[in-house]
Structures are given as C-alpha cells and as structure tokens.
C-alpha cells in the first residue's frame, strides 16, 4: 500500500514526486503545474534524452533507460523511488503508459509511491478508437457515424451516402493527428484507404470553431476532483490557443463519460458540438498537451491528484477562470554544466 497523509502537518520537508518523459509537452505541462503548486513539492524528472527541457526545470534530474528494456527500466524506477522517497509518479510519456499500467500495483507495493495511471483495460479501450466508439455508443453518448476499414468495406457505399463528404480517415490505433486525413471526395477517400488496414472512417463534424478539449481527473474512489473544458484551436494536432468560458454543461457531460470508463487519474476527451450537443471523437487516457494552459485558467490537475491521493484531502473541482491563452514557443539558455551525461544516473 502506498504512503498517504491525513493532513499537511504530517509532511516532514518536501513531497518528492517523479515526472517521466520530461521533454514531452505532457511532461512539461505537469512540471510547470507542480512548480506553480503551493504544496512543498520536490520535482524529480527523468527522460532518455539529456536535452529534454523538463530536466532543466526540475529540482533533480536523471537520464533514464528506455521503458522498452522493461526489466532494467523497472529496477531504475524502483530504486529511484526508494532512494528519493518519491510519493507520486506522473507519466509524461505516452509510450510509457502501458508499462506503468501493467506494473502499477507492483511499484506501489515495493516503493510506496502512488502511480497516477489508468488500468490496462482503460488504456486498451481508449487506445483502440473503435472500442472507444462502441463504448460511448453503448452508454448512450453521441458519436460520429463510424465504420472500420477494411472490416466494413461492404458498407462503404451506403456509409458515404448517409454521412456525405468530407469524411475523416484515421488510424484505429493512432495518436493525435498522425495519419488523419480529411477526404473531400470519393477519389481522395479511396486513395487514403488503398492498401491499408486498421482504419476508421468517420462522419466529419463540420464546425471547427466548436472543438473542445476536456480534462477530467478522477481519484481512486471514482470521484471527479478536477474538470475543465477549453474551446481549442489546433496546429499540427497540438493546441495553440484555448478559450475558457461558461462551458459547465460540457465539463459535466464529460465527467459522466470518464466515470463510465472506470478511469483513474487524468482523462482527456476531444469533442465537437453538433446541433449544440457534444459529439466525442477521441479519448486519451493521460494528461493533455494543454495541461500547462489549464494551469493558467486556475486548474492545476497534478496538484489536485496529490491533494486527493497522497494527502487524503477532500478535493472539490474548482471553476476555471474565463479568458484566452495563446501558446508560443520560447527559447531557453542554460550553461553547458547543466547538461546531464547519459552515463550519469
């Protein structure tokens, strides 16, 4: 059983937390949120790449072996957690989610560190976009009309007739916007599916101005401890601008969706509005690329998880401030002696 605290007075010194994948946009968002927290947090960051920006922002940083070398990686994480008395692990690398999901119970038992990751069942459901659509449909949530290719190739003509163009073609097991094609006519559609497998063909929800990213955090008891909906604008699959307004109906709707999944920790839901109703087209079982943006609206998801799961506090979801956040890349200077060498751990 992992360590937990009844109140702040039980904390001696700082709370050490681990952030993996420190160079990813997810890892950086987690680190920025932790640094902004009022809690006495010590951030320990790891990445396989010594030039990962998050390593330079953390209190302590280490070069990690690759998670694909599972036995070596497991021992590295176990020893790191024990040596630094780490109380919580945040995963900033999508590729590492399956490892932590499979090994969560073992790591928590051997290190007393809480691992904020969804179960293997939730990961499978959300990673397979067809299973996601089936689950949502069974639970009564609105989804885009969807067929598989090539499994449902015999339905293609009738699907085109009912859904009309444009259509979305996406990998069934893809990440973000990688491999997503907007087919504007039959010629483009046939070209985009030619010789390929494991695809989904979906109805295109036309109003790009009404696309939302919704963050929901759920504790081990199944209680929602954080929620926020942002109307977003994308560039190459990443949010570059976000608007927060009176989107309470959307956040409440997605909180119910996350609860039906049996989610734990962070869930990120993508949707568009059709006839003023949410239509969900993707669920990511992890922190979002907009985690740092959410912080600027007053929603600190990593802090909420620490308060609920490590400090055993009763966390009530806060209300996001209204406004606009714009994302732009920033350059940082560091002296050479700040660079970690790969053989130093």
TrEMBL record:
Tell me the ranges covered by the ATP-grasp domain, including all copies: 133-310
Which InterPro entries is this protein grouped with?
A: ATP-grasp, ATP_grasp_subdomain_1, PylC_N
User: What PROSITE patterns would the database entry show?
Assistant: ATP_GRASP
Pfam families named in the record: ATPgrasp_Ter (PF15632), PylC-like_N (PF21360)
What keywords is this UniProt entry annotated with?
ATP-binding, Nucleotide-binding
Name the domain of life this protein comes from: Bacteria
NCBIfam families xref list: PRK12767.1-1
Instruction: Please identify the protein, giving its name as recorded.
Output: ATP-grasp domain-containing protein
Annotated source species:
Clostridium rhizosphaerae
Lineage summary: Bacteria, Bacillati, Bacillota, Clostridia, Eubacteriales
């Amino acid at each position: 059983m992992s360590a937990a605290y009844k109140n702040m007075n039980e904390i001696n010194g700082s709370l050490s937390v681990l952030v993996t994948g420190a160079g990813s946009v997810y890892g950086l968002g987690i680190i920025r949120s932790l640094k902004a927290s009022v809690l006495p947090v010590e951030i320990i960051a790891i990445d396989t790449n010594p030039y990962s920006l998050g390593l330079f922002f953390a209190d302590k940083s280490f070069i990690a072996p690759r998670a694909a070398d599972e036995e070596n990686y497991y021992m590295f994480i176990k020893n790191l957690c024990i040596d630094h008395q780490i109380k919580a692990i945040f995963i900033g690398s999508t590729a590492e989610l399956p490892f932590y999901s499979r090994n969560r119970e073992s790591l928590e038992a051997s290190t007393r560190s809480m691992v904020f990751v969804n179960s293997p069942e939730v990961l499978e459901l959300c990673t397979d976009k067809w299973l996601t659509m089936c689950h949502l449909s069974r639970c009564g949530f609105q989804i885009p009309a969807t067929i598989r290719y090539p499994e449902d190739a015999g339905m293609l003509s009738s699907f085109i007739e009912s859904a009309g163009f444009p259509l979305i073609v996406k990998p069934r097991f893809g990440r973000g916007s990688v491999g997503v094609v907007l087919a504007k006519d039959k010629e483009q559609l046939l070209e985009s599916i030619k010789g390929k497998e494991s695809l989904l063909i979906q109805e295109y929800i036309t109003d790009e101005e009404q696309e939302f990213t919704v963050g929901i955090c759920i504790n081990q008891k199944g209680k929602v401890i954080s929620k926020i909906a942002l109307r977003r604008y994308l560039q190459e699959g990443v949010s570059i601008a976000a608007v927060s307004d009176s989107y309470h109906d959307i956040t409440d709707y997605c909180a119910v969706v996350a609860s039906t999944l049996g989610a734990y920790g962070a869930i990120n839901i993508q949707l568009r509005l059709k006839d003023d109703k949410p239509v969900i087209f993707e669920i990511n079982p992890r922190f979002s690329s907009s985690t740092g943006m959410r912080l600027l609206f007053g929603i600190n998801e990593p802090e909420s998880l620490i308060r609920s799961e490590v400090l055993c506090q009763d966390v009530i979801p806060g209300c996001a401030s209204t406004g606009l956040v714009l994302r732009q890349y920033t350059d940082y200077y560091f002296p050479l002696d700040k660079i970690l060498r790969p053989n130093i751990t």
